[in-house]
Amino acid sequence: MAGTASVERVKDRATGLDKFVLREARGSSVEVYLYGGQVTFWKNNFGHQLLFVSNKATFKPPKAIRGGIQICFPQLGSHGALEQHGFARNQYWSVDESPPPFPVATSNCHIDLILKSSQEDLKIWPHSYEFRLRVALSPRGDLILTSRIKNVSSDGKPFQFTFAYHTYFSVSDISEVRVEGLETLDYLDNLQSKNRCTEQGDAVVFESEVDKIYLSAPPKIVIIDHEKKRTLVLRKEGLPDVVVWNPWDKKAKAMPDFGDDEYKNMLCVGAAAIEKPITLKPGKEWLGTQEISAVPSSYSSGQLDPEVIRRMHTI
């Protein structure tokens, strides 16, 4: 018999950090740390962990947690005085006690967090903002992240930012994984000084290091894991681009918080807004959503099974 949905705040015994555990009635669950506003664990109704977190991940501020879903704001990458991927992923968020109404009621099983400008932030990024994040778990186990960023400055000036949900998926074997929905798109290749190229394959496959930003991607992307007979369907709104990353062997060995061979079992695919920075005038708000579903699938001759297609059209 199915239970009831619940949201519980706990202190992680291993890390000492506060987190929320969301549980849906059918068995899916999500863990969200206040540190970084970061989802680290997402288990579907079958009990499978769908996100990757490195065995060497450091849960000690100010280091970001290596894995899960990192919130990259106000930038992805390294530019100017801001740290790599911005500051949102290594700050403590607060519970948003009075969130504004969301455009669509995503789920009753959710947690609302908020991050506001600090004096330290303002020294390196002189803009006043409120960043509201809702992490929700649907009754069928889908994971939905909704970000709302508002310009609350009193100086009358707009500000710009870029953004990404840097999402680490757990995969069986990176060489057996395909990403569909990005074919024929232009992308910026971070391994070639952000040269603009065009995807030539009928799917994105992995044989070496990849660090690309696909531009103006469709609202649905699928990640097909043949060995696990699983397809992950990623839907996005307000986020035109998609980041795809795998460090491969040499870079993996150079990262202290990443196992030497862990690149074989992870893949980052996340919704983003990179090519065209978002401009917010005072009082205005931006909203960007990423929704992920995991569905059992078989993959043969380049065709998704009917269940996957049905879910892509209904989620």
UniProtKB/TrEMBL annotation:
Highest taxon of the lineage: Eukaryota
EC number in record: 5.1.3.15
A molecular function (GO) term: glucose-6-phosphate 1-epimerase activity
Protein keywords: Isomerase
Family statement: Belongs to the glucose-6-phosphate 1-epimerase family.
Catalytic activity: alpha-D-glucose 6-phosphate = beta-D-glucose 6-phosphate
Record-annotated membrane-spanning stretches: none
CDD domains found in the cross-reference section: D-hex-6-P-epi_like
GO cellular component, one term: cytoplasm
The keyword Amino-acid biosynthesis is annotated on this UniProt entry: no
This protein's name: glucose-6-phosphate 1-epimerase
InterPro entries: Aldose_1/G6P_1-epimerase (IPR008183), G6P_1-epimerase (IPR025532), Gal_mutarotase_sf_dom (IPR011013), GH-type_carb-bd (IPR014718)
PANTHER family in alphabetical order: APOSPORY-ASSOCIATED PROTEIN C-RELATED, GLUCOSE-6-PHOSPHATE 1-EPIMERASE
Gene expressing this chain: LOC101771518
Residue numbers binding substrate: 66, 84, 89
Manganese found in the keyword field: no
A GO BP entry: carbohydrate metabolic process
